[in-house]
Design a protein that fits this description.
The protein has three helices and nine strands. The chain is an alpha+beta fold and 165 residues long.
């Protein structure tokens, strides 16, 4: 997709166009889930009421139904630069499109097995269980993966671990 951490909103907008939808945080000061916040999708009507449209929001989501994947971008509110890029990894059900290089850290589907990942990358910097989900994070690799029953399904590359562990 050609988007990198620290790219500006303008670059993302130029390269990818209007997001499929944007979301906003419920209340980041009160963590209540494995993602540390609850995001709410903002209606197209509400987005159109803002002076900058989608650029008024710091969470953009692009869905590509034909290829069955979604890519999410979070932006720093003060710098307006990309702090994380995430996508669902459903390789058990269908292969990832070739153009999602940011979502694959290794060609093998084995990588998204929890035990294999730990063997390959070592001891994680963070492990957190929240109900059916487990988050594993490696700060030195700028990556975190959310697992369900030992299989990774959502991967994030991020540079904001210090601000949002």
């Amino acid at each position: 997709m050609g988007i990198n951490l620290n790219d500006s909103k303008d670059i993302v907008y130029y390269k990818l166009g209007e997001p499929t939808y944007v979301s906003t945080l419920d209340d980041i000061s009160k963590p209540n889930s494995i993602n540390s916040y609850t995001a709410w999708v903002v209606s197209k009507e509400e987005v159109s009421k803002t002076s900058k449209g989608a650029k008024s929001f710091d969470r953009w989501n692009y869905e590509y139904y034909k290829n069955k994947y979604r890519v999410d971008f979070n932006f720093d509110p003060s710098t307006q630069k990309v702090t994380s890029i995430s996508c669902f990894v459903l390789s058990d059900y269908y292969p990832l499109p070739d153009n999602i290089s940011g979502c694959k850290l290794k060609e093998s589907d084995d990588f998204f097995d929890e035990a294999y990942m730990k063997k390959y990358l070592g001891k994680p910097d963070l492990e957190k269980i929240d109900g059916l989900y487990k988050l594993i994070a490696y700060k030195k690799y700028n990556v975190q993966v959310i697992f369900n029953q030992g299989r990774g399904f959502y991967i994030t590359v991020r540079n904001d671990f210090d601000n949002n562990p």
